[in-house]
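Lab notebook: predicted structure, single chain.

Context: the supervisor wants predicted structures on file for every construct in the current expression panel, including those that have not yet been purified. This is the next one on the list. No modifications to the sequence; it matches the entry in the shared construct table.
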Amino acid sequence: MPFASIRIITDDVDRLVAFYELATGLTAERPAPVFAQLTGPGATLAIASPATVAMLGDALIPAANRSLIVELEVTDVDAEFARLEPALTQVVLPPATMPWGNRSALFRDPDGNLVNVFSRPATPSSRASGDA
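Prediction complete. Output recorded below exactly as produced.
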């Protein structure tokens, strides 16, 4: 079964869409005021109002998640963090190299969801060709 998307339910679709448009550089498709999606290479992030899942009762609560990480792979974590930092309200981890080699910066989106902007370490073959 093909992966379709991850959907974040929020009380402020416009605010969260603006944040993820800034973070990803993508423009959201807005088929309805209560729903948007950003589709990039490898993934689709959907952002929707509670009205889109009203039939589920209280199964989804906006801005209450502490188990999700939205991960965005970039070439230069430090440059992306510097670009986004003025818009961030909570930095969890400034740019750092993780024990497994990834470079990461973690922060919360406007609803409190964790976002990881990361880059993978250079491979031995890319180092040999001059990439650092």
